[in-house]
Amino acid sequence: MTASPAPDRAALLALAVEAAQEGGRAAADGQAGIGVLDTKSSPTDVVTEMDRSVEELIRKRIRETRPGDPVLGEEGGDVAGEGAVRWIVDPIDGTVNYLYGRGEWSVSIAAEIAGEVVAGAVAVPARGDVYTAVLGGGAFLNGEPLRSATAVPLELALVATGFGYDSRRRAQQAEVLRTVLPRVRDIRRGGSASVELCELAHGRVDAYYERGLNPWDWAAAALVAQEAGARIGGLHGAPPNPDLVIGAAPELFVQLHDLLAPLGADTDGPAAD
């Protein structure tokens, strides 16, 4: 029996872009006056009606073109399928920003084959930006090639980060930041992991780190950053994971990694008695 051909990565990217842009338009049109529909891990970890409706719109678009593919979405969970591609969807990354009428939010869609992300699109509707990447094919912003910033010494690095919703985790992240802040140029906190990773790809920050992310937060944007020349990973050679995601030019990655590793940046602090 002849093996089925591998899915065409350009076609996967085209579907991701189409769905992300459509979802972004729907979310942007519904942003004014949006309210909290539900909460998740804490009262500050909010969900809006648009998070769920945009994810369903994206799932529908994917099903129309590739009906057998599984989809992992932030709101709808992991839906199994027999297809060769798993889609990883964040309908609105930066929901608190979205709720407050801010522009730092995105729609993020990645296509994964055999555990490896091969195509991704991140739409940032408030800016009219669409970041795209195909594995081995480079990164682009609105069709123009992207290259991340060249490495600078740690003390000159503009570093982006983010904070979790659990109070204990936030306290530990603040402790880590107390050590990091005096060692770098400055800190930026935008409130959307995928936007921050795309900012890294664009050279608008030099580095990024955050604990507590999920695959839908980083899947597409990490590919964009990697294809732009950044290194993305966790601690001690691990791939990006919920414990910690770090991104920077390769030389700076090592410096930031070595600063974060002994600080417990991948933990929620000492275990309670």
TrEMBL record:
Transcription regulation in keyword set: no
Catalytic reaction equation(s): a myo-inositol phosphate + H2O = myo-inositol + phosphate
Gene Ontology molecular function terms on file: hydrolase activity
Alphabetical list of PROSITE patterns matching this protein: IMP_1, IMP_2
TM stretches of this protein: none
InterPro entries reported in the protein's UniProt record: IMPase, Inositol_monoP_metal-BS, Inositol_monophosphatase-like, Inositol_monophosphatase_CS
EC numbers on record: 3.1.3.25
Record keywords, A-Z: Hydrolase, Magnesium, Metal-binding
Cofactor: Mg(2+)
Primary enzyme class: hydrolase
Similarity comment text for this entry: Belongs to the inositol monophosphatase superfamily.
Protein name: Inositol-1-monophosphatase
Organism for this UniProt entry: Streptomonospora wellingtoniae
